[in-house]
Amino acid sequence: MSSTWKPRIPLLLVGLFAVLGAVFAGTSAADYIAHLDRQMHAVTCSYFPGLGSPDASGTSGCFTVMMSPYAAVLRASTWGGLPIALPALAVFLFLLFKALDTLLRKREDDRHETFFLVLACLLPVVTSVIYWIVSVAVIGTVCKLCVGVYVASFGAFGAAIAAHLRAGRARRPRGVLEALITAPVLPAPAQAGYQGGPTALGGPSSPPSDPGVAAAIASLPPPPDEEAPPAAGLFPLPWGRYLAYFLEGVLFVGLCALLYLAFKPGYTEEMARCGKLLRPQDTYQTRLKLHPVPGGVRALEVLDPLCPACKGFHERLEASGLLGRLDLEAALFPLDKECNWMVTTSVHPGACAVSEALLCAGERAPEVLAWSFENHESIRERAKEDPASARASVVKAFPALAGCVGKPAVAARLNKALRWAVANSLPVLTPQLYVQDQKLCDEDTDLGLEFTLTRLLAARAQSGGKS
Amino acid sequence: MNPVVAHVGTGAGALLLACILTGVWTGGASSRLEQAQAAPPKDKQVAVASAADEGYCTKDLKQILRRVLTSCGLVKKDQGRGCQPLEAKSVAAMSGGDFNALFHPLAQRASIIMFEKDKAELDESDLALLQKTFSDQRGASYFLVVSRASPEGSVEHNRALSEARATAVLDYLKAQFPDPDLEQEVGLLWLGEEFAQLDEEFCKWNHSQAGPAVAPDGAAPAEAPGCTTAELNRSAFLAWIDCRL
Q1: Which one, A9, B12, B176, B244, has least CB within 10 Å?
Q2: Would you identify the CATH topology of the domain B59-241?
Q3: d(Cα A133, Cα A128) in Å, to the nearest integer?
Q4: Which residues of A are less than 8 Å from B48 in CB distance?
Q5: Which has the minimum average pLDDT: A48-57, A174-183, A423-432, B82-91?
Q6: Cβ(A50)–Cβ(A418) under 8 Å?
Q7: CB-CB under 8 Å, B135 with A408
Q8: What is the ipTM, given to two decimal places?
Q9: CATH number of A272-462, picked from 2.115.10.20, 3.30.420.10, 3.55.50.30, 3.40.30.10
């Protein structure tokens, strides 16, 4: 490799990782934005976007993360919110710009340029760490596209540090002082103290503890670049230039966000009209009190305890912050042919047995529901082979229910719950949410939940709770 | 390269790329949403929860059921309950054999409660079978109770006896399953000895014992309970009907 290109390799790597990050973030943003048409689409979930078949079943980690409340911000203000992948795309394109710009202007030896690049690359790194923790600890799954973004973030950050270190080496003789000088971790006033006097920022002066170090620093030759600091390595920082660069970054993110908000699909009142319950009365006492809130707005969640979408919906509802305003009950609608004649195949095998357990549990129903959501995959898998296994699992987890689950009385109650669905001509799908008997459209139960539910609650409040 | 040109050029290029991607994606979503909203409603329909309507619910069967149920006061709330033999004959407009054949597809769904001779009381095995059968409603809309009497005795007596047997079943259900919808779900037909007597073929169906399974002193009965035609018709035929009318 020629000596002309070798010094540029770290910056080229920053650009390469920025491109990689832009591809992953862009793919994720495209998948998210595609869902703003209120329809279901297959999502990309691959370490190699574009290769491999997309997930149309909604079972991949990418889909779960995309539908989680952490995939977007401003959800209550605009339908679907602003997907976090879009600003991520803007940031990576900004990093690409900064890397190319530094190379084309031949400023790879300018440590102020490389230091800003390090700072800029720190943003996706910090965001990646936060989102990785959220994915693992809260959502419980990690998406492949997100992993691509994490790798790109750390890669760009590492390459930026390498570029900055190389810039330091290019300007100074190698030695023990190099690390001290090139490490941009100390606050400006403290670093300024190396010059042995008060700083331009008016900070306190703190001379180096070792006079030899101070002398060595003072004896360093001035940099050839007129914009670079004259003697003390990195400091004082060119705040004006950094502010300009920062504003450039803000422009990238801000313009993308503004364009998105300007051109994203609108939400009309007609979209909110999805019918209401014909016979809302719970004649047979088949409902579960999921989240009793005295004085809260009456709401009903139609759910299947083994339905992954119901689990996701319930989590979104909890994370939305709106649950506290709802006096929430659940109506059981297991999509399992063991008890539900409306399905020809068991969509969620074992759901009938778990539904019986929920009816048996009474006040402990939320506890049983949390258990079923937690274990829904394993219960379904076992029930596929042996339909009786779900009953055994729930009784093992909640021995007190053994005398009730599977008995004719509770089977009859569950049947009544299903017949209530018939009486109200409900769609055969879960989850569904009714707020004071008014249906929240199915298209609004995921990306648009916060927005539409907030509007619905506001409308209920204005009408004095009259449905 | 001129540093200013390089800076502005690369910055504008990257920014333009971000804007184009954002515009294309959001524009695509908007146009798809408009198309979806303009699509006919039938394209958006999903299955709606409904009562069961099994394959055996042929057009003819539904017609007969509708006639029987309407005439027997089941569909219209204020009409008198139960369908007497003469009414059943007229609304069914078919032979007893053909009438019974309508229920053949229900072999796995129906039960026959067998009473003692000249009795209308339900014993323990009858109650257990009744409870089991009634609990297995699934998606069915109507529970039919078709009671009969064996030919011994007068026609009038057997008519009253079969009515008492049907009423005994209904009374038990009312007591055991306090359900506001019960009146609209359970239909009674009492046929006495006059119409659609069951033949021995129905002995293969799920049925309770004709007599006590154990003697009053706890010993085994001297003779095992049988299933003659006479015994079979001292009965109430029970079945949930999985048809939508």
Answers
A1: B12
A2: 60s Ribosomal Protein L30; Chain: A; (3.30.1330)
A3: 8
A4: 425-428
A5: A174-183
A6: no
A7: yes
A8: 0.77
A9: 3.40.30.10
